[in-house]
Design brief:
single chain; mainly alpha; three-stranded parallel sheet; three-stranded mixed sheet; globular
């Protein structure tokens, strides 16, 4: 799966025209890399960004460990990857992870206006400017994606990652108060 996702990230990164991405809801794991590949990244204020890999015994993929240090600096990138800190859309803008955060109901319009403005712009100049911004980094991303894929595959086969993923999935499937599944069973004492 990493190979297909990495090919998509590489292809999006190599587009000669500016790419606008928008994040609504949760962006976790590979979704982070897919969001960050944009040249202009917009986020709803309520969006949530979390790497989550190390919590389940894996390393990042989809270019997250390549994009983050370049966007937010090495210390903040380490914080996000190692601690699984959750950022809101506003936090992500303050950290430099996204270009702008907007009110949730404005996200689609803001993304369309941004893309339309770029599409109506000076195409040759925009392509040349994007080329300058990407100069010398495309090959590095490809090599980095290969190494991410190698590491995540190696760790996914390990006992610790399998145990952590099973624990994560079991916790996700536990009944929660108010979801109907807890009420269907026997009542529990809370004393």
């Amino acid at each position: 799966m990493a190979s297909a996702a990495h090919a998509a990230v590489q292809a999006l990164y190599e587009l000669p025209v500016p790419l606008v991405t928008a994040v609504r809801g949760a962006a976790a794991g590979g979704g982070i890399g897919l969001a960050l590949v944009g040249d202009i990244v917009l986020a709803a204020r309520s969006a949530r960004f979390r790497l989550a890999y190390t919590a389940i015994g894996l390393t990042p993929d989809c270019g997250a460990s390549w994009f983050l240090p370049r966007l937010v600096g090495p210390r903040r990138a380490a914080d996000l990857i190692l601690t699984n800190r959750v950022l809101t859309g506003d936090d992500a803008e303050r950290w430099g992870l996204v270009s702008h955060s907007v009110d949730d109901e404005e996200l689609d319009d803001a993304a369309h206006r941004t893309a339309a403005g770029l599409a109506a712009g000076a195409g040759d100049a925009l392509r040349a400017a994007k080329g300058l911004l990407r100069a010398g980094t495309g090959d590095e991303l490809g090599r980095h994606l290969d190494e991410e894929a190698r590491l995540i595959a190696a760790l996914a086969d390990g006992r610790e990652a399998r145990d952590r993923m099973a624990s994560f999935l079991a916790a996700r499937d536990r009944p929660k108060a108010g979801d109907g599944r807890a009420e269907a069973g026997e009542s529990e004492s809370v004393s």
